[in-house]
Write a structure and sequence with these properties.
Elements lengths: L3 H4 L4 H12 L7 H5 L2 H20 L3 H24 L5 H14 L2 H4 L8 H16 L13 H14 L7 H21 L2 H21 L4 H24 L10 H16 L8
Helix pairs in contact: 2-5, 4-5, 9-11, 10-11, 12-13
């Protein structure tokens, strides 16, 4: 391969494809890249997707371009491995998703009615996907999804065929029931049983989020961020006295936590933006 395209700036996507081809060359490529397969690369793909989501959630627009590039590299990596195995290549991947977009938007590239609400268009999209699957209701919900996200997708699929609680209050009742069963399991049953009951409780929490139109993954990420911010405020307050959490106690840290919460609620009158 001519390495000029790999090292010459401005080559765009052809340059990236050539770089991956060079890295995966069995004779002259990078030993690490040559050894990889779909399974070994998949965790990196998931990680890069989360880093894209993280940059967006933080509003880190200066980082987003680089994170999207890292995610694109993952697609290019899988495409090259597929090409080497004679399964598919980058062109066929792009062509397949392009055709899918055309097929699923008859109101744009067909005789479908464009005068629909966004909600109706989503319903039509799901109906088209269901027709494409032509299998069991829950087929195609990826096993590799984060557990909370997969729970919501499974519940949405079941709800579309009528298997769902009609009101949110029923989900809350089920949440209380599962919480009680978890407490009972903790006191009387094996660790395996406790784990099962914990799973049931989390599944219902995901269902409650769905009924409240809340993304549980996004909600939990926000809660993680909030916890980190407030705990770091505790550490900062203790550090100002030359101490750390190990030199404090729960009562003091609770007071500092409450102080951090109050500080977040106080408006900054000096900020006019």
């Amino acid at each position: 391969m001519d390495d000029d395209i790999c090292t010459r700036p401005g080559g765009g996507l052809p340059r990236l494809l050539a770089i991956m081809e060079r890295l995966r060359d069995p004779e002259t490529g990078c030993p690490w890249d040559i050894e990889q397969d779909f399974a070994s690369i998949a965790p990196y793909t998931i990680e890069e997707a989360y880093e894209v989501a993280d940059a967006i959630e933080r509003g880190a627009w200066d980082e987003l371009e680089g994170e999207l590039g890292d995610l694109l590299l993952q697609v290019v990596y899988h495409a090259r491995m597929g090409e080497q195995e004679g399964r598919f290549d980058f062109h066929s991947i792009a062509e397949r998703v392009a055709q899918k977009m055309v097929d699923r938007h008859p109101h744009i590239w067909g005789d479908g009615d464009r005068d629909k609400s966004a909600e109706q268009q989503v319903a039509d999209w799901e109906a088209t996907k269901a027709q494409e699957r032509k299998g069991r209701t829950l087929d195609g919900v990826a096993l590799g999804l984060p557990a909370l996200l997969r729970a919501v997708k499974l519940q949405n699929r079941a709800a579309r065929v009528g298997f769902d609680w009609p009101e949110t209050i029923a989900v809350l009742d089920k949440l209380r029931e599962e919480a009680a069963e978890l407490v009972e399991a903790k006191d009387t049953l094996s660790q395996d049983a406790v784990t099962e009951e914990m799973g049931d409780l989390l599944f219902v929490v995901a269902n409650l989020a769905r009924h409240l139109d809340v993304d549980p993954e996004a909600a939990l990420r926000a809660a993680n961020t909030k916890f980190t911010r407030r705990f770091e405020a505790i550490e900062d307050a203790l550090a100002a006295e030359g101490r750390g959490p190990a030199q404090s106690d729960l009562a003091e840290m609770d007071r500092l936590w409450d102080a951090a919460k109050r500080a977040e609620k106080i408006p900054d009158h000096n900020n006019r933006d």
